[in-house]
Structures are given as C-alpha cells and as structure tokens.
Write a structure and sequence with these properties.
Blueprint (H helix, E strand, L loop, with lengths): L1 E3 L4 H10 L6 E3 L11 H5 L4 H22 L3
Parallel strand pairs: 1-2
Length: about 70
C-alpha cells in the first residue's frame, strides 16, 4: 500500500514500478469538493486556484525530470 499526496501519486507509483515493486496507491488528500452550480462560484476566480496550478505544474515538471533522470 502506497500512501502519498494525490498530486504526487503518479510520480511515486512510477518510481516503485521502476524498481519492480507493485504497489496499491491510496491518496491521502484531494483538492476537490462538492460541485456548486452557482453563478458566483462558476464565474468568479478563486484565489486558491493559483496554488493548485502551481502544484500541478510542479508535479508535471517533476515527472518529466524523473523520466529523464531514469527514476521513473
């Protein structure tokens, strides 16, 4: 069982698979909530969205670097 952040899961699983260890992934956090269909929720940007994009880009770049370096 592999416990880690939802954003980090893909990179972590790839590292374990690279060395031949089969894991069952379990995400410890998620960045989603109940869907709200109110105009102010759908149309007005949320300040936390910038942080989420930063985390996503960090993991995309990290996964690419891990592939290049041979870690994943």
């Amino acid at each position: 069982m592999l416990f880690t952040s939802a954003f980090h899961m893909r990179r972590a699983v790839a590292c374990f698979k690279k060395v031949g260890i089969e894991v069952t992934p379990y995400s410890t956090d998620r960045y989603s909530g109940p869907r709200k269909y109110y105009p102010n929720h759908l149309l007005i940007p949320h300040a936390g969205a910038l942080f989420d994009w930063s985390s996503l880009l960090h993991e995309i770049v990290g996964y690419g670097v891990y592939k290049i370096m041979g870690y994943a």
